[in-house]
Amino acid sequence: MSAPASKSPATLHDVAREAGVSLATASRSLNGSARKVNEAYRQRVVEAAQRLGYTTNLFAQAVAKGSTTTVALLVADIADPYFSSIAAGVINAANEEGLVVTIAVTGRDTQRELDTVRALRGQRPRVMILAGSRTTGSAYEEQLRSELASFEDTGGKVSFISQDAAPFATVLLDNRGGARDLAVALAELGYRDFAVIAGPREIRTAQDRLEGFAEGLAEHGIPLAPERVVHADFTRDGGYRGAQELLAAGADVDLVFAVNDVMAVGVVSALRDAGIEPGSGIGVAGYDDIPTVRDITPALTTVRIPLEDVGRRALQLATGSAYDDGVPDSGEGPAPIPTETVLRGSTPRR
Amino acid sequence: MSAPASKSPATLHDVAREAGVSLATASRSLNGSARKVNEAYRQRVVEAAQRLGYTTNLFAQAVAKGSTTTVALLVADIADPYFSSIAAGVINAANEEGLVVTIAVTGRDTQRELDTVRALRGQRPRVMILAGSRTTGSAYEEQLRSELASFEDTGGKVSFISQDAAPFATVLLDNRGGARDLAVALAELGYRDFAVIAGPREIRTAQDRLEGFAEGLAEHGIPLAPERVVHADFTRDGGYRGAQELLAAGADVDLVFAVNDVMAVGVVSALRDAGIEPGSGIGVAGYDDIPTVRDITPALTTVRIPLEDVGRRALQLATGSAYDDGVPDSGEGPAPIPTETVLRGSTPRR
DNA sequence: CCTAACAGAGAAAGCGCTTACCGAGCAGGC
DNA sequence: GCCTGCTCGGTAAGCGCTTTCTCTGTTAGG
Question: What distance in Å separates residue B129's CA from the closest CA in chain A?
Fold first, then answer.
């Protein structure tokens, strides 16, 4: 495959020459400028651009204007439906505003997250959205925050998804409340012996769900013994192994709550492999309401989050274009996104 | 949240001044330049950059160098596991090469695809990867191709995923062959009365799978009547409705093949809702081997594609960094990615 | 010692675009 | 009819970088 002649793309200069006008006029005609341009001229320029197949070089435009149209999105794992749904929301919202989104994945690795943030800053994005970030306890937390703070100092906007990360904007998910409601609903269904597959300890979101769940149980006077909690890594396999661990410990459990659906799916599989029927044998519940859980058997009880909306709002929060769509936006303090407990076959009444 | 003073980010100029060297030296020290720089100077510059929290402005660098480090990825729907897995592959491979990826979604809409390609060109990406594109029959096809051709003329590289799109590079998936093998395997299992939920007619990938499947059946002397083929849109709901349609037509079917797993999941659900047990009643098979299908009941028979690898290779194909990883790379003609029929519970022996 | 050859720092000219600023042309007012 | 005041092209100065080219300071060879 020998490199073809490869002329470089037409520049504004070429367009101006082709149209027989000045560079300035060409620029004004093509990119929405405040200044008016004689319609006849504009026409000529547009046609010339057409003819040459010209597209504005966004990079050059960015350096000239000193601002870009890029949104950077950091997710832990794009193949995870939780994140890909959020990404869909961000991308759609961004496109509507003529913004372009750059995605990077951090693989749930703190060091990599930090490196990625740094690298992404080179793009001078208008907005940086962090989903699935660990903002708790890690040695890197401070570095991350200072990196982000400096990003905001230089005119960027950051928004977090899920856990509160003041002073940065956040699309707050009421993880604690959602889990609490779920616990209450399950207790009311008659479950008593709970175990939970928690997430990584350093992830606030995971921790909140765990704590909220315990709170809900407490309201019904049900304790959650520490040995009934195993920590896993948010993956299906993690959930699978977590369930095995629980089973091996021989505890008398009638419901397993996994703090995300992906792990819950693993739990269902582990139970089945151990000869226990999920649902009728041991109840299973998850969190997120990813599409899959409606299709497995039994369908999973979970807590629904409007993931795509979450992505949308994360962007709007940053661009300030949050036209009010029903979700109360009480000034500064962002109201959490409402979640909803969805009871399905995996948790029949006891 | 009043806008803070918002100083602009440190520039190379600032760094140079801070380090007491010239702009040129600063540039050379920070970004791998061919020219050598006295180590003592380099040190000073690096430290100064550190101190100022400087990160190279990639945009400015791009305009100066005349080339970017961006990869543009177009997918039909990022929330679809097929695409998000591919995206994961692309992103990982790109990160390894220090490239940044921009994702746009086209929503399976031709006009939008074309617009998106145009918009993305403004970013002057090094590479443009198209997955799930319609390259057949649409009125826009020619426009798309000419847009892409012109992109390549100006130094870009495009690579397609799935269907051959000569003269552009392609990560060829042997859709026809994979479907043929699947059909053969199913026929050998004893199935005789087939129906298929095909994809949109204008999508080559969908069409190939349909045709390959028919070929496989033909090898066993089994016909596939046109009324046994319904077209749907690659979504779960599409699959659901397709199956309903088939059922309503009252055909005597013992196996439904949906040309992608997402629709197959819909089929399973539709059958169940109609009181027919998927597997023991009517067999179901899909294509892609997305994670979900292993977890539903019955687990779905399907054709496995190493999706992440596909994404990886799409990038490598374009950047020319295809270190040989076992997949034969016979010079120009790209060998198709090998697929594998995976028989599971949804197609028990008859 | 002197000259040739070579490093390697710095000055400056771009890269493709935006945007003051300038100035020509024209309309209207007195 | 002359002046004021618009309107709207064009000129040119950047934006933050890279890179060529110039030029000085060293080193080495004779």
Answer: 14
